[in-house]
Amino acid sequence: MLIFEQSRSGRKATAQSPAAAADLSGLPEAFIRKEKPALPEVSELQAIRHYTNLSRKNFSIDTQFYPLGSCTMKYNPRGALAAATLPGILNRHPLAPESHSQGFLSCMYELQEMLKDVTGMKGVSLTPMAGAQGEFAGVAMIRAYHQARNDDARTEILVPSAAHGTNPATAVMCGFKVREVPVNSDGDVDVDALKTLVGPQTAGIMMTNPSTCGVFERQIEEIAQVIHDVGGLLYYDGANLNAILGKVKPGDMGFDVMHMNLHKTFATPHGGGGPGAGPVAVGERLLPYLPTPIVGKEGSDDAPSYRWLTDKDIPETIGNLSAFMGNAGILIRAYVYAVMLGKGGMHRVGEYATLNANYMAKQLEKAGFQLAYPDRRATHEFIITLSKQTKDYGVNAMDVAKRLLDYNLHAPTTYFPLLVPECHLIEPTETESKEAMDEYIAAMASILKEAETDADMVRGAPYTQPVKRLDDVKAARELDLAWKA
Amino acid sequence: MLIFEQSRSGRKATAQSPAAAADLSGLPEAFIRKEKPALPEVSELQAIRHYTNLSRKNFSIDTQFYPLGSCTMKYNPRGALAAATLPGILNRHPLAPESHSQGFLSCMYELQEMLKDVTGMKGVSLTPMAGAQGEFAGVAMIRAYHQARNDDARTEILVPSAAHGTNPATAVMCGFKVREVPVNSDGDVDVDALKTLVGPQTAGIMMTNPSTCGVFERQIEEIAQVIHDVGGLLYYDGANLNAILGKVKPGDMGFDVMHMNLHKTFATPHGGGGPGAGPVAVGERLLPYLPTPIVGKEGSDDAPSYRWLTDKDIPETIGNLSAFMGNAGILIRAYVYAVMLGKGGMHRVGEYATLNANYMAKQLEKAGFQLAYPDRRATHEFIITLSKQTKDYGVNAMDVAKRLLDYNLHAPTTYFPLLVPECHLIEPTETESKEAMDEYIAAMASILKEAETDADMVRGAPYTQPVKRLDDVKAARELDLAWKA
Amino acid sequence: MPFIPHTEQDVQEMLETIGVSSIEDLFDEIPPQLRAGELTQVPEALSEMDMMRRMRERAAQDDGALCFIGAGAYEHHIPAAVWDVATRGEFMTAYTPYQAEASQGTLQLIYEYQSMMATLMAMDVSNASLYDGASGLAEAVLMAVRANRKSKSRKILVPGTVHPSYRSALEAIVEAQNIEIVEVEWDQQSGTTLLDALGPFTGEDITGMVIAQPNFFGQLEDVNALTDWAHAQKALVIGLVNPMAMAVLEAPGNWGEKGADIAVGDGQPLGVPMASGGPYYGFMCCTSAIVRQMPGRLIGRTVDLDGKPGYALTLQAREQHIRRSKATSNICTNQGLAVTASTIYMSMQGPDGLANTAGACYQNTQALVEKLTSIEGVEKAFSGHNFHEVALTLPAKASAVLEKLAEREVLGGFDLGLSYSSLENTVLVCVTETKTDSDLEVYKLALADVLTELNG
Amino acid sequence: MPFIPHTEQDVQEMLETIGVSSIEDLFDEIPPQLRAGELTQVPEALSEMDMMRRMRERAAQDDGALCFIGAGAYEHHIPAAVWDVATRGEFMTAYTPYQAEASQGTLQLIYEYQSMMATLMAMDVSNASLYDGASGLAEAVLMAVRANRKSKSRKILVPGTVHPSYRSALEAIVEAQNIEIVEVEWDQQSGTTLLDALGPFTGEDITGMVIAQPNFFGQLEDVNALTDWAHAQKALVIGLVNPMAMAVLEAPGNWGEKGADIAVGDGQPLGVPMASGGPYYGFMCCTSAIVRQMPGRLIGRTVDLDGKPGYALTLQAREQHIRRSKATSNICTNQGLAVTASTIYMSMQGPDGLANTAGACYQNTQALVEKLTSIEGVEKAFSGHNFHEVALTLPAKASAVLEKLAEREVLGGFDLGLSYSSLENTVLVCVTETKTDSDLEVYKLALADVLTELNG
Ligand SMILES: Cc1ncc(COP(=O)(O)O)c(C=O)c1O
Ligand SMILES: Cc1ncc(COP(=O)(O)O)c(C=O)c1O
């Protein structure tokens, strides 16, 4: 039942707004709203009961194993929420004077420094509000760099075919043409093909490493050489940073610019689709173009003072990408996570994320599933392909994913990357226990049996959720995007 | 699965305790624990996931209509939680000096004053930690009163047969013998019988008004007369205060002492069984005996100062009933509720609670259910008896209660009061909407049909809960009260 | 190991299964020269207790002043229930509802959000959110360019009364798209955009026009006239509004003859804390006619195999994960949790509650203006009407006054001189329903005091 | 109408159904002379916003001092997750799990709690909670009297080292039960209960004896010897303990030859905030032999109709709702939510975490003693060993010193002179894991300063 269907005209069971209507007679009629919005009129209890019950129709990290590949659904420490909701932090106005901001600014400055360290980069701007906006900032900086050199011929961004959809979409938003780079059957980029694609038109390349194939791009140094040789720059999509956190720094691989997804690697909650944070980090060459604002530090280490750096300090900046400084509350959570992890913990993230993925990969292989890259080490995630099951039993990757829900396990990412048919991209993350993974492995083995013996049943899954499979075609054809009385 | 079954020896996935063990070598061996307690060893995520999922196996006010009679399961404002968890309130040490307690004490003092007003009493002590401890305090004061007068013959407390179990249990804890007073078929006390029971041995009577029969005791003034005439005192069990809040004051009915259940009438959460708070209020005669501590006010209204009153101020007190001042955090919530309700809201509570109960009673009667007291007004709650259904279909009060769970509605109180056979005691409270009640009424009508057509099915209910009916006999015979590895 | 559950035994068993002898072996495909050394800027781990202590100390440093700053972020009462429910694990730790059957909670909630936002804006449809108001404005401009197929100019009129940071974000984001952003001059007397200022553009090919209500100065624009003028030029109208204000002010869908085509803005006032600037969310509504040009996610109502109603992502062919380089935007992760809170907030306000809250903001602002303008030399900078922000001209430099006010724990507003060189002595002040009479009095006394100190 | 959902139309329809014309009519059975007039001490309603503002102001009044008071309530770190989960609506707004099938969450949690508390105390079983430690002690005494059928004396020995408020609550609660509470003298040198002091009782009919560990002075009692002595008199032993301390100190079930018969205490240290004294909870454990004499609820594991494990209230025949005047106690509502928090807390600490936390308390206390006794005239009041509280003798009246410390925002401890006339110059100081070295230094400097001021 929708909240609107619980609404009754005139219901005002609330202690949440002034009891009386204000006198608006000072405002001319022309400005005044004529017809009330049809917002629901419910009691506090009704609202709480409704939304509490709605929440119970979700899977989540707090309630289920959620190995959604490329999304790093790791434990989100509740301590980070507690810190971010301290009144002095929660209620700080974004334009509060620096005299009333030293506490907040010191956290942001320290976060910048930590991110520089783990990325091996020279400068960080925290402002992008998600990975895709980080990509935008990064590619816009590449553009600014070439423009500043009057290098106007650079109209192309290279993107491996396995890349996430935001990569090509971003390149286009930044005014570039996109050229796809093929990927070999072992998951690495086809470097020979790459060499034929580069030239003076090459503004740069966007890469994920480990790639979205769940393997480490072994020729990364050669690729960097190829791109740099023709005058292009390398963009690192940090969505998979969890795999190598504390093990390899993107800056050392030759990347010039990158974003991080703090809602992945730094354990800030995904919130049912966001918010995230996508800070950008750059090497020497792109420092002048970082998006604003950034936090600067002055004075001695004993008595530091922090201030905002804006376009007055960074005149060649690509500018500001939001009204204020981006998703500050998420940045605070990421800072807290980094502080609680510490140096030692930071080194462990990649290790245990990788251990878990390789363990699951091996066990699923033993259980009869086909790995997409059986001869490669898995990184923090890995791919199985269900082509055989699709052919043999007519049970495809989506069917298996839906059936997992009946086992009270969230499905992995399906049908991404596009170049592996019928695929599951599985990312357990380092915070899941062996027992949780064993449960998933057992469920997959059981579903495989079900596919053999009762394919129809599997194709009809799920059966235990609030709804069965939904009619997506109807959703798109008979668009119903808003409730009407 | 139990949390213990998820434990693995040596798992230390926590940022919640010092990383290293302390040096205890300063302590002699004899004091030191030899064998570790078998507490679970789980990660933070495992703990959160486990207890989050456990919570999802509960019905609650926030998720279901919960008309548990005598328990006043009304909406618990979240604002009260927010106020009670403000750091200055949450972290205040109970023995903090008065210089650091004026904020807290002012709230407690104001709560005392408000409770005096709504009860029509002369003094309040907030310290009892639940209704039953309030009863204890009240009856102990009655005892102290008679003792102070050297009136040693008063060895009996009268209790109507419909009374809650805590009433007789309390009287015994206070050293009295319990005599039951019969109740008429209209729900009122049998005053003639009462008259034969009273005498110089009568210490007092414990009454609930409205009674647990869900009707207002109409002869209360006469009863007060009878008791007072023989030198006894009247105790008011305030569990049903919600029915008359703002409408009738117990002090005006002739009661000498009473408790309130703030977790009922003042909307503090029930917490899966507690904590509650059971302040006592007294008339003039019992003022000297109030349990300590109490908050006193000094100085002018403009510059008040508050301090604890202890046995130095109240030398004849029955004493302290807890280490400090009782369930302070619950008292804060009740204070906040009273403040948000205000005078107007306080008057409305009884009105709408009564309106809802009478509406449901009438509709259930129309739907074919038998009211226990059809000729009486319902108060904030009412009773139906399922004797007929038990006889006709073999479907009893418990079966119907269990079947309600399948309709996603919490069952009412069953088999209480004991004097009405096969009964449901139903209390909707004022915070439930007509729609919620209509849903319940429709479910009851539907269950009645089911009883007619498929009694076996109803007797097997529930079917939709995490477990089916449990084997209580086995639970008692093969006692398993603690997990063993 | 904070957050990592592995026991020694787990690790051994797993390594055996994999067939390697150490975790280190799992990294053997990485060229050794790429392996990182020790981190130098990450200190040793703090326990949650030590972390909280640090954070409490830092939070306390910034806390305690009375805040009269608005300028795009507004202090409103947020019912305790809103975030209690929004931070339930099932909402907070889920991700984008790709598995619809296991995400009906989030999906239905967004559908309800879309419905609420559409009715609040008096528009047909709403998306599921964009990052914030400023980037949302940029997306709206990009959308207008896509949607107004008849216009070839790619020219967008943007009044100078639009939030300066929104305008610079707009420039930064559409920079590479060959779009001409033209600033429309504002009237110094009324602080609004006059039809006169549009005269030079009449008859030109204009792709779209942005109209802010209230505008950055808190002034009310003549939205009806501006909308009709823009439509007469065949431009699409982008209404940029404060959603709280729409409880009492006419909503974009009802502006002028035909209503705005797109409504956009920042959802922060609806239950989202100020939190140093985010996470907030950009809302975006539009007419049905152009919904296929919308960026961001959309949730549709449909049915399941049994015909039971359910909710799912729809029109995904607009999005990057399907359309890649041809998508309407690169947005992927949006601001879901802030939207969750806003939806609960709106349900707990209702139409009357929201109107009363907005009305209280307006009244309190009027009251503060009266108080402050009773100080000599303090005047309203502009004629006309305001909602809950107002530009006040001071008898001193705004920056100096604000600094001295801050020393007195009053954050007095936004220094308009930072963005408008003609307004060096003007401060933009905001008052919401959270302020009491005594707060206003505190401000007045502090200001009088500061002005005496500065001007002798 | 805050919290009441009825519309005018709802009310009309409902009145019609009932067949009356006004709500007032529903009260027609109440004698008119009993009807209340207007409330005079209840002010007009505040909105949640105004209420929160008042409460923030009042909370701030009491906030900010460093707290070294213990004496029955202890400041410990509480993981953020504990109350985030405990305050989920499903836990917080449910009631006693009478409908077992719809309460498996609470029931299983309490079963886990019982299991954890039993293992922490090294006892067989635990109940589901009592109100607090003090009233819990009274219930333990009543239980011992019921359980020790062979003893006729109804005499209970209670050392003077037991918390004075616990002793007075005990007296108040068992007052009418004809029980003789006998105070055992304590040794002024060691601050503990010596076997010597028990000499006069040897060979008597003693029903039970209370043994506190640590005792009120923070001193460690020779629990093994005391337990064996009591058992030799056929008395039941009631161990009164701080549950946090039991992570490192020997637990009641292992005291002496046979272990204590009942363990009781306050669960507050395990994840429950100090909150001005409550809600805390009293825990109670006992041997299997006497479980049927236990007061309070018990949850048992059983199976459902399908043989699936499940949890239910059991041995209810001990309770007031079944047995009425013959019940083991009148307790009904207990302290469920605090128990919920404690259960989560214990699961997040584990045996090692809890031991490390307890160990840090011990260490920090040692460190403070060292610091403070370096001030001239400040000395440990007693020989022997402590856990995390210590009695320090000062060269001035404790009450005066504490008052002056409070002015310096240090709450320096509990004035033992309030309860022990011989200890006017002695303060009971507590240090937990929450205190840093610099906190201890702050205390030291403040104390030195105060003593200089007082003693010149
Ligand atoms: C590989 C990759 N790149 C980029 C992104 C985009 O990040 P965001 O969703 O934070 O915009 C994602 C996230 O889904 C991703 O998996
Ligand atoms: C009528 C009646 N009296 C007394 C009590 C005891 O109150 P409490 O459970 O708070 O101890 C109750 C509560 O269940 C009750 O319903």
Describe the structure.
- The complex is a heterotetramer, with two copies of chain A (485 residues) and two copies of chain C (456 residues).
- By secondary structure, chain A is an alpha/beta fold.
- In chain A, 37% of the residues lie in helices and 11% in strands.
- Chain A is built from 16 helices and 13 strands.
- In chain A, the strands form three sheets. Chain A has a seven-stranded mixed beta sheet, sandwiched between helices. Chain A has a four-stranded antiparallel beta sheet with strand order 10-11-13-12, covered by helices on one side.
- In chain A, helix 2 packs antiparallel against helix 11, helix 5 (131-148) packs across helix 6 and helix 11 packs across helix 14 (434-453).
- By secondary structure, chain C is of the alpha/beta class.
- In chain C, strands 2-8-7-6-5-3-4 form a seven-stranded mixed beta sheet, with helices on both faces. A four-stranded antiparallel beta sheet of chain C has the order 11-12-15-14, with helices on one face.
- In chain C, helix 3 (80-86) packs antiparallel against helix 11 (336-373) and helix 6 crosses helix 7.
- Chains A and C meet through helix 1, helix 2, helix 3, helix 4 and helix 5 of A and helix 1, helix 2, helix 3, helix 4 and helix 5 of C.
